[in-house]
Each structure stands twice: as structure tokens, then as C-alpha cells.
Write a structure and sequence with these properties.
By secondary structure, the protein is mostly beta strands. It has three domains: 125 residues, Sandwich (Immunoglobulin-like); 178 residues, Sandwich (Immunoglobulin-like), CATH 2.60.40; 186 residues, Immunoglobulin-like, CATH 2.60.40. The chain has four helices and 34 strands. The strands form seven sheets. Strands 1, 10, 11, 13, 15, 16 and 18 form a seven-stranded mixed β-sheet that branches. Strands 12, 14, 17, 19, 20 and 21 form a six-stranded mixed β-sheet that branches. It has a six-stranded mixed β-sheet with strand order 23-22-27-32-29-30. Strand 15 and strand 16 form a beta hairpin. The protein starts with 6 loop residues before the first strand and ends in a 20-residue tail after the last strand. Bound molecules: 2-acetamido-2-deoxy-beta-D-glucopyranose (12 copies) and copper (II) ion. One 2-acetamido-2-deoxy-beta-D-glucopyranose binds next to loops. Its EC number is 1.10.3.2. Its cofactor is Cu cation. This is Laccase. It catalyses: 4 hydroquinone + O2 = 4 benzosemiquinone + 2 H2O. Lignin degradation and detoxification of lignin-derived products.
Length: 568
């Protein structure tokens, strides 16, 4: 199953199948079913001047890109050859009625133990664009991730000028240490884990202070041609700014939904988000620096401040030519991030309408998202306390039986259905309280009837520190109808909601000390995880799940579990 290592030639559509040697479509007889095999194996790699074994798919880092078309069925046979339990999440794929293939460990499945095999099996319905796959257990997604490219149906063009070529750019974070050791050390101490040592672009950091000889990726372009960059943030904990010296980009899609073209110098992208942008090689020659640098506007929070670099390299450029530098925004450039985020709009065309739930909603929810401090007698470094995180003051405790299994087979005692729809206590969420920092434990879900409409306001808290949290919802896309700083005002803020062409996505940043309002329709039965996509916060408990009941008849009901679903 060869692919072009991130590079796809955008062939004329009628030639597409002939280009199978270039894109990864296997020469399968059944063009509608794409088979992939993921062998999870250890691989020794050298980065930042030192070497370590990492968990990979098929020995590749980043892992292989999955290519398919809208309406295809994808079957990925995963075999676990490593010592860790593994599960893989197909981030952003709706998984209509196929929740068993969603992937988060102990939410929709038990993990694949060493030696086990599971075939994820799902159909790509109503989606086209770039997404990502990644491990959804422990911190394994640090190295176990890759792109998903969903091409439009055969013969359906992009709603933007056809690019000459397409490039998948996976942004990541690299630790010199073993990432499991990093998080385990933090859980023992009660303190925050060590930040990463560098960011990466397609697996490479480029020259960095600690290792000036570190390699940089080179993207070769021809002057005058336009390229589609499929940018994926697969970092564990860092939101990133992405820039190319001397070149503006035009964003045309985010999270596999088309947007109104947005010209920008800087792209802001949170872990779990994807952004497709056109870039025209409008210069005639030269080398231009590409940068991925952190966005973290809470100065009290330590961040890996090492910028990853690659180069945009025009064909015919002399080796001696100097690279034009890009100046990344400072880590706290909130205004740069806001300008970008506030400008994104759904394409909302006749062909791709924004199906925003309008009018009164069935569930109007307010969830606080933030940190907390709980006692931990064994946490010496934390002076007997540990950092935790919570939604509506509930720190989610992982069950040992998958929630979806417990739901489908009516296994009691695994979860309760009393997840609060509003904060249990009303306070000034964005202030920094010095008392009442503890949270409650629970494995709670919020239950929704099939097809119910939901408005959910995600409100950051200032407990310990306010911070930007990229919240990811499994099983659905949602519309980002509003956003603001301070405490959400239920009376006045809805008046300014955009119910016409809000951006549609699966992961959204809740601004530091502010709120974000989303709307979605619960048209997918199953159990759907929602969590912060900063892995450190997920580990600390910033997660919950929605349980969506079956509707009427088989088309609105969860399928039975596949026979090879791993058991606990
Ligand atoms: C990685 O390197 C170590 C020692 O450098 C070696 O023992 C081990 O077998 C290697 N592992 C793999 C998967 O190549
Ligand atoms: C995939 O799931 C479909 C039902 O959605 C089923 O018909 C098919 O047999 C499954 N394929 C495999 C290989 O499990
Ligand atoms: C974390 O950082 C500290 C301080 O630099 C270092 O002593 C420790 O070994 C690091 N932990 C891991 C797991 O790398
Ligand atoms: C790049 O886009 C910005 C708008 O974000 C615009 O102000 C600027 O003039 C553009 N630069 C070039 C070189 O087109
Ligand atoms: C990055 O952080 C380190 C340690 O906190 C600091 O010494 C260094 O000056 C910072 N570098 C930049 C470019 O801000
Ligand atoms: C960013 O942080 C620096 C200190 O590191 C501060 O001087 C500057 O004012 C901050 N900028 C913004 C926009 O907050
Ligand atoms: C623990 O207490 C010591 C002594 O009071 C103090 O210096 C240190 O900063 C504290 N550590 C934390 C994480 O609060
Ligand atoms: C909360 O759950 C954690 C495990 O996730 C446990 O260590 C802790 O003791 C629990 N706290 C309470 C108060 O039950
Ligand atoms: C809430 O706290 C913030 C930050 O301390 C403060 O600026 C604001 O005035 C407070 N709001 C209310 C209503 O007290
Ligand atoms: C969260 O729950 C804990 C434990 O019950 C309580 O002490 C704390 O006051 C609550 N905090 C908030 C903000 O509701
Ligand atoms: C879901 O609700 C929408 C809006 O009320 C309605 O148009 C649609 O028919 C409903 N779908 C189902 C399957 O009930
Ligand atoms: C792996 O998963 C199984 C099934 O959930 C569990 O019993 C086992 O403890 C897990 N192993 C580790 C090392 O966590
Ligand atoms: Cu978070």
C-alpha cells in the first residue's frame, strides 16, 4: 500500500485511477472499498541528535496517509505488535452508526492488547477534505498518527481552483525522552509534564538550538503553480502558528468542511484540527522558510518555544541562495489568533449549505472547562496535591469496560447518566479563585434523544490559570455560532450568534478566559467522547461523553458490534 509520502499529484479527474501509483489507491477490484493494513511496531529513529525507539504504524513516522473518496468504505486492519495496549481514532470521521470503529479506548472499545487484531470498518458519508488518525490511549498519539485525505466523489470538483499538486503537512511535537515516561513522571509528581523539545513538520524539526544539524523538510515547487497544503496539527499539547515567508495562503477548508476562501499570512491550528490552504508559488525563484511555532497566551504555562522549520524551495534555485526568513508571531499573539479564528466562515453554498440548527434548541448547555487541584498524598513534588482538569467540576474517571459496550449490552455500574448540563455552582468563571479548587470524580454521560438539537457553551475557567482549550467532539461536526471573552451572558450574547454561515468543525479552541458556543444535531446514535485535545488536559480528566439514543428503525440505530471487537 504505497503512498507518495505526503505528496499527491492532482491529476485530471478522468485520469485519477490511472494515477494510482502516485496516490495510495491500491489497484483494488472493488473501487468503493479501501483496505489498509496497520502494523503497530516499534521503530528506532534519530531526531534532535539522539535516537530512541518509538511506536509507529508500519515503521513510518508520521504514519501512512489514508486516501479514499467520499462514499467509500474504509477497512483498516490493525495488528498490535507492541507492548502497549493500542486503539486508533479516525479523528473527525462521523462514524454514522459505526461507533464501534471510533477508537477511543474504554469509550467505544477495549484496546487491542499485544498480539490482537481489529478491523476498523467505516463509510465516509457527507465528508470530504483532510482529517487525521491517531492513537487514542495513553500518550501514544505522540508518534502514532497520520493524515486522512477524503477526495470528493469521482467527477465532483473542488469548489476552488484546482491545485497543481497537493501536499500533506503533519505538524507534531517531539520529546527526546520516551513520552510514556514523561506523562508517568507527571502523574507521580502531581505536576505538569515536561514540555516537548521541538516541534516537527512531517516528522522533522529543522535546525534547532539543541541540534543545529537537525534536518528540515524541503517542499519543492515550480514558479507560477498553485499548491494545496493539507495541514494537520498532530501535536500533543501545542496550538501552532503556521507561516511561509513571503507567501500568503488562502484557506479553503477546515476539519473536512469547505469554508469561504480566507487569505491570510498566518494560520492558527489546534491539536486535532486540519486546515487546507492554497499557496501560489508567485515568486520566480528562491527558498522561503516555513515555520510552525507555538500559540500559548497564558504566560504562566510553560511551553516548548522551539520553532519547527521547513523550506519552500523553487525549482531552479541555486544551492547558494539565501533562505528568506519567516518571522513567527510571539507565543502570546492572541490578536493574530483571534483575527484568524473570527474570520472563518462556512462556504454555505447551494451545494454545500450550512445546516445550522436554528431557532429553539432541545438542550441548552453550559459546560465550564478548566483545571483544578485535588489531594494526592503520594505526590511529593506537588506537596501532596495534583493538578487535575474537569468539565462542570467533574473530573472524568476512565472506566474499565467501554462505555459503548456498557450501553449496548445494558451493563450496569459502568457509568451514570447525571452529567450536569450546567455548572453545579455559579461563580465568576474567569476570575482566579484561591479556594474551592477541588473537583469531583465521576464517569458520567449526558443523554440525548436521537435528532435532538444541542447548543453548548464551553466556558473557560480561571481556576489555577485561564487557558485556551481546543475541545474535540467525536461523532459530530458542530457549528461555532459564537465566541467571546469573559463570562458568557445568556441574555445578550445569543443576539450576536451567527446562525447563517458559522464555521463547521470537530475541534474548536475555547479562548483563554472566554467562551465558545457551538450547535449540533444529535443524529448519530452511540456514545461520543468530548474532550480537550491538549493531551495533558485529557489525561487530567477534561473529558466527558454524550450518549445518543437510537432513533426509529435500523437506519437510525447503532449497528451491533463487529465480531472481532477487542474484549476487556
Ligand atoms: C533499537 O535499538 C536498540 C539498541 O540501540 C536495539 O536493542 C533494538 O533492537 C532496536 N529496536 C528496533 C525495533 O530496531
Ligand atoms: C464492514 O461493515 C459492513 C456493514 O457496515 C459489513 O457489511 C462488512 O461485512 C464489514 N466488512 C468487514 C471486512 O468487516
Ligand atoms: C523532565 O525534565 C526534568 C528537568 O529538566 C528532567 O530532570 C527529567 O528527567 C525530565 N523527565 C523526563 C521523563 O524526561
Ligand atoms: C497577505 O494577506 C494580508 C491579509 O491577511 C494582506 O494584508 C497582505 O497585503 C497580503 N500580502 C500579500 C503579499 O499579498
Ligand atoms: C524558550 O524558553 C527557554 C526556557 O524557558 C528560554 O531560555 C528561551 O529564551 C526561550 N526562547 C525563546 C525564543 O523565547
Ligand atoms: C507577550 O509577552 C511579552 C512578555 O514575554 C510581553 O512583553 C508582551 O506585551 C505580550 N504581548 C501581548 C500581546 O500580550
Ligand atoms: C512545595 O512547597 C515548597 C516549600 O514550601 C515550595 O518551595 C514549592 O514551591 C512547593 N511546590 C509546589 C509545586 O507547590
Ligand atoms: C478520583 O479518581 C482518581 C483516579 O482517577 C483517584 O486516584 C482519586 O483517589 C479519586 N478521588 C476521590 C476523591 O475519589
Ligand atoms: C470576574 O473576574 C474578572 C477577573 O478577575 C474581573 O475582571 C471581572 O470584573 C469579574 N466579573 C464580575 C462580574 O465580578
Ligand atoms: C467541585 O466539587 C468539589 C468537591 O465536591 C467542591 O469542593 C468544589 O467546591 C466544587 N467546585 C465548583 C467550582 O463547583
Ligand atoms: C431531525 O429533525 C429535523 C428538524 O426538525 C427534521 O427535519 C428531520 O426530519 C429529523 N430527522 C429525523 C430522522 O427524525
Ligand atoms: C490492557 O487492556 C486490558 C483490557 O482492558 C487491561 O486488562 C490491561 O490492564 C491493559 N494493560 C495495561 C498495561 O494497561
Ligand atoms: Cu485543555
Amino acid at each position: 500500500m504505497e503512498n507518495c509520502r505526503g505528496r499527491v499529484r492532482a491529476c485530471p479527474l478522468f485520469l485519477f485511477m490511472a494515477a494510482a501509483a502516485c496516490i495510495s489507491f491500491p489497484a483494488a477490484v472493488d473501487a468503493r472499498v479501501r483496505h489498509y493494513k496497520f502494523n503497530v511496531v516499534m521503530k528506532n529513529v534519530t531526531r534532535l541528535c539522539s535516537s530512541k525507539p518509538i511506536v509507529t504504524v508500519n515503521g513510518e513516522f508520521p504514519g501512512p496517509t489514508l486516501y479514499a473518496r467520499e462514499d467509500d468504505t474504509v477497512i483498516v486492519k490493525v495488528v498490535n505488535h507492541v507492548k502497549y495496549n493500542v486503539s486508533i481514532h479516525w479523528h473527525g470521521i462521523r462514524q454514522l452508526r459505526t461507533g464501534w470503529s471510533d477508537g477511543p479506548a474504554y469509550i467505544t472499545q477495549c484496546p487491542l492488547q499485544t498480539g490482537q487484531t481489529f478491523s476498523y470498518n467505516f463509510t465516509l458519508t457527507g465528508q470530504r477534505g483532510t482529517l487525521l488518525w491517531h492513537a487514542h490511549i495513553l500518550w501514544l498519539r505522540a508518534t502514532l498518527h497520520g493524515g486522512i485525505v477524503i477526495l470528493p466523489k469521482l467527477g465532483v470538483p473542488y469548489p476552488f481552483p484546482k491545485p497543481h499538486e497537493e501536499l500533506v503537512l503533519v505538524l507534531g511535537e517531539w520529546w527526546k525522552s520516551d513520552t510514556e515516561a514523561v506523562i508517568n513522571e507527571a502523574l507521580k509528581s502531581g505536576l505538569a509534564p515536561n514540555v516537548s523539545d521541538a516541534h516537527t513538520i512531517n516528522g522533522h524539526a529543522g535546525p534547532v538550538p539543541s541540534c543545529p544539524s537537525s534536518q528540515a523538510r524541503r517542499l519543492s515547487v515550480d514558479g507560477g503553480k498553485t499548491y494545496l497544503l493539507r495541514i494537520i496539527n498532530a501535536a500533543l499539547n501545542d496550538e501552532l502558528f503556521f507561516k511561509i515567508a513571503g507567501h500568503n495562503m488562502t484557506v479553503v477548508e477546515v476539519d473536512a468542511t469547505y469554508v469561504k476562501p480566507l487569505e491570510t499570512e498566518t494560520i492558527v491550528i489546534s491539536p486535532g484540527q486540519t486546515t487546507n490552504a492554497l499557496v501560489t508559488a508567485g515568486r520566480s525563484t528562491g527558498k522561503y522558510l516555513i515555520t510552525a511555532s507555538p500559540f500559548m497566551d497564558t504566560l504562566a504555562v510553560a511551553v516548548d518555544n522551539v520553532t519547527a522549520t521547513a523550506t519552500l524551495h523553487y525549482s531552479g534555485t541555486l544551492a547558494s541562495s539565501v533562505t528568506a526568513l519567516a518571522v513567527p508571531p510571539p507565543r502570546n499573539a492572541t490578536s493574530v489568533a483571534d483575527r484568524f479564528t473570527d474570520s472563518l466562515r462556512s462556504l454555505n453554498s447551494k451545494v454545500y449549505p450550512a445546516k445550522v440548527p436554528r431557532g429553539a434548541v432541545d438542550h441548552s448547555l453550559l459546560f465550564t472547562v478548566g483545571l483544578g487541584i485535588n489531594p494526592c498524598p503520594t505526590c511529593k513534588a506537588g506537596n501532596g496535591s495534583r493538578a487535575v482538569a474537569a468539565i462542570n467540576n467533574v473530573t472524568f474517571v476512565m472506566p474499565t469496560v467501554a462505555l459503548l459496550q456498557a450501553h449496548f449490552f445494558n451493563i450496569s455500574g459502568v457509568f451514570t447518566e447525571d452529567f450536569p448540563g450546567n455548572p453545579p455552582t455559579v461563580f465568576n468563571y474567569t476570575a482566579s479563585p484561591t479556594t474551592g479548587l477541588a473537583t469531583t470524580n465521576g464517569t458520567k454521560v449526558y443523554r440525548l434523544a436521537y435528532n435532538a438539537t444541542v447548543q453548548l457553551v464551553l466556558q473557560d475557567t480561571g481556576i489555577i490559570v485561564p487557558e485556551n482549550h481546543p475541545i474535540h467532539l467525536h461523532g459530530f461536526n458542530f457549528f461555532v455560532v459564537g465566541r467571546g471573552i469573559g463570562n458568557y451572558d445568556a441574555k445578550n450574547d445569543p443576539k450576536r450568534f451567527n446562525l447563517v454561515d458559522p464555521v463547521e468543525r470537530n475541534t474548536v479552541g475555547v479562548p483563554s478566559g472566554g467562551w465558545t458556543a457551538i450547535r449540533f444535531r444529535a443524529d448519530n446514535p452511540g456514545v461520543w467522547f468530548m474532550h480537550c485535545h491538549l493531551e495533558v488536559h485529557t489525561t487530567w480528566g477534561l473529558k466527558m461523553a454524550f450518549l445518543v439514543d437510537d432513533g426509529k428503525g435500523p437506519n437510525e440505530s447503532l449497528l451491533p458490534p463487529p465480531a472481532d471487537l477487542p474484549r476487556c
